[in-house]
From TrEMBL, chain A:
This is ABC transporter permease. Keywords: Membrane, Transmembrane, Transmembrane helix, Transport. It is found in: Cell membrane; Membrane. It is a multi-pass membrane protein.
From TrEMBL, chain B:
It holds the Pfam family BPD_transp_1. Residues 72-264 form the ABC transmembrane type-1 domain. Its main location: membrane. It is found in: Cell membrane; Membrane. It is a multi-pass membrane protein; Peripheral membrane protein. This is Dipeptide/oligopeptide/nickel ABC transporter permease/ATP-binding protein. The chain crosses the membrane at residues 12-33, 74-100, 107-130, 136-155, 190-208, 214-232, 244-267. Signal peptide: none annotated. InterPro entries: AAA+_ATPase, ABC_Ni/Peptide_Import, ABC_transporter-like_ATP-bd, ABC_transporter-like_CS, MetI-like, MetI-like_sf, OppC_N, P-loop_NTPase.
Amino acid sequence: MKYLLRKVMLYVFIAWAALTMNFLIPRLMPGDPVALLVERLQGRIDPAAMEAIAESYGLTDAPLLQQYRDYLASLAAGDLGLSIGFFPVPVSEIVMGALPWTIGLVGITTVISFLVGTGLGVVLAWRRGSWTDHLLPALTFLNAVPYFWMALILVLVLSVNLGWFPVSQAYEPGLTPGWDWEFISSVLYHAFLPAVTIILASFAGWVLSMRNMTVTVLGEDYVTMAEAKGLPKRMVLVNYAARNAILPSVTGFALSLGAVVGGSMLTEVIFNYPGVGYTLFEAVQNQDFPLMQGLFLIISLAVIVANLVADVIYVFLDPRTRQEG
Amino acid sequence: MRLSRFLPTSGKVRAGLIIAVFFVLLAVFGPLLTSYSPQASGTDLLQPPSGTHWLGTTQTGQDVFAQFVYGARISLGVGLVAGILSQIVSVLVGVIGGYFRGLSDDLLYILTAVFLVVPGMPLLIVLTGYLPSRGMVSVAFVIAITSWAGSARVLRAQTMSLRRREFVEAARATGESRTRIVFSEIMPNALPLIASGFLFSVIGAVLAEAGLSFLGLGSLTTTSWGSMLYFAQSAQAFLYGAWWWFVPPGLAIAVLGAGLALINFGIDEYSNPRLRTGRSRARAVRSRGPHAAALSTAGASAAASGAETPGVATILHDDAPDETVGSVPAGAAPAPPQIRELDVPGKPIIEVRHLKVDYPGADQVVHAVDDVSITLHRGELLGLAGESGSGKSTLTNAITRLLRNPAQVTGGSITYHRSARGRPSGPTTGGSEAEVEAIDLLGLSTEELRAYRWDELAIVFQSAMNALNAVTSVGAQFDDVLRVHRPTMPAREREALARTMLEKVGIDPGRVSAYPHELSGGMKQRVAIAIALVLEPDVIVMDEPTTALDLLIQREVLDQVMALRDEYGFAIIFTTHDLSLLLEVSDSIAVMQRGRLVEYGPALEVYAEPRHPYTRALLASLADMGALV
């Protein structure tokens, strides 16, 4: 378990780095944006909000270290400050309201996209040299399509022209959220198009990397030996080739997850989907800095946790990491 | 990596280059094609494409084509600047960390991990949200900050593997300075990775800029593809069906991204030949195969001259310039093959007759196995000797039906004589020697071949380290064979059999649950032998089974194989380049050179009275080295 322990320590460090980055960004950006903001907002908002902002940016004259300690202490208490745009709602409340939507949408689509993509990648690797090779340029194109553009096209064709799906929102306005079929079916119906967007824009990347890894692995002696053993093709492909080829995909999860999260945020904006991406967009529009930072923090932490999960899965997949010593 | 050689190998790369060049030209010269200014409003509002407005107009009457070509400048410019900046950081962090190691590497590794895990887009949004003024340069700068980590990680791994290679070790031994080694030895070899990392950075940066501008976080006074989409979105262009407004910029981003990714395909295929498809694959065989052969010959001759055997060194050296395996240099008539009668007690089990295997190249066919006939008898140990590239592996791969594309059997036959004993489920009526069924190995159907494999012919690969599946236990690798070939055997019996087989090769049966990485090299090779024996096949092909082991272990494993052969009575085809080893264990010996059988006969006779000059040279070199007494 030494491997996992080292990974956990690394992630704890990364989480700390993200917290610190979050603390330093407003203080280190050129041109003192906070002072500028305060100036700009003067008279436009509630004086009480004004004070809250000043406080959350350490416009108190305390030394930096003292500010940092206060920052960590209020984080530990779950206090992310107050939103400017929705004053005086606490940032943590807004973040917690947005998070389930994104975790549901991005979590489920990422898993589907990963499974479909790696599966297809293995199939394409196995059939290399046949007509399926001609799918590669198409997949490369698909992989380069920006998420938000894909969303625009889908909206144009499926919502505006054909009227099959709703253009925006997460559920029919007027419904009360609850565990009844009417609400759940409305949520699923509204989530369909954003989900399709994210899957279409992200699965090709998994296909391409898995295909390349599997093709590389197919040349290894252990795969030749499996074939020489007279095992059925499926068994060779799944238990020997894919089982080994998937390892780098799991390690590369961090890299890809960042891209998926970024793309999904833009997708949310197009569909007015009330997740963290849309909320972040709104926060930026309102120059709601406390909310922006709270959202950045929570997205970073969610990605860190997802990476940790990927590493735990990796330990199950690769016995070499379970070695003691 | 000369461009002229690199260009024609792949249609994908060519398509990618055409796309990239097209967009660069568009960005540079496109604005000359239009008389409109990208920001100027007009009176034609939201018009579809026409002669006056090639890509129509926006809601305020701006010309979309003008925006598109001016936007190309900004999008490409930001992409290039951010790509270059990001790649500089990647190279510095990756190469320095990977090469210098120690504390600086640890710190850089953690830094890379932080930027790798913290999601780029939200960080980008927060950073630009704070930027007091958003010029294109500051946007490019921020994009670079958030995107260097992935490439740095790859470069670090590559540098760490490069610094252990011989040429770098050699440079260090000669006292070259570290900076010089990094720049003249490491960097050139990491170049494909740097190039591919750069292309990915550019794609990433173009996408990031588009995303930011789309959110209204870019510089909204400058027109980029992203800001076009932003204004199209905020004007609800898609509700009016104004496709001409938002389709071109998004499509351009996707096509440009695909183009750069296609170039990357070429770079990947260049550094990993297994990925090649179609035509580039066929060419690869032509250019790589003989090259590899020449390399190995050169290696062999270096080894031989090191042992001060001028005779062999010359002979081997003469091979080196002749790059094509199997072709005969004009003028030098080859010595005729020397085939002797075999006197082996068993009945024939595998008969190879006039076998020809070709590798079709782009302009010439390589005869990897050229008219070879050998016979393996029951219980016989046939030694197959020859250097790398002599065709011995191609021959055994033909017998095991493991030839890979593009190798093709173009002539001859391989016959397997199946005895009644070989069929475990079949009725053993009498079991007399007369019940032998001749099977055309080359004509087996997929299903027949699958059933024949391992049950009647098993293989021990050269390196057990690579032949065992690293991610499943030893037991599982026995178990799948038994599950497939002995479907009626209960699970408990299967495990008991695996334990018995391990015991037979001198391994504690408790190790059945061990994973390959928990075993030593010698133990892994024993496990591989045990797996080969589990179905009690009649023939085992051993492809240099002891080459990867050190001498002492080699001896132990060999003794084990001989003892097992006495117990089970299987026949062995044993390939090696080590003739002295073969002379000791073989019943008969076949020597191959350049795809042809040059000498074949009983081991003792070949040793005592070699007739072919090549065999004589090989034996003489062994005698000089003191390997023979």
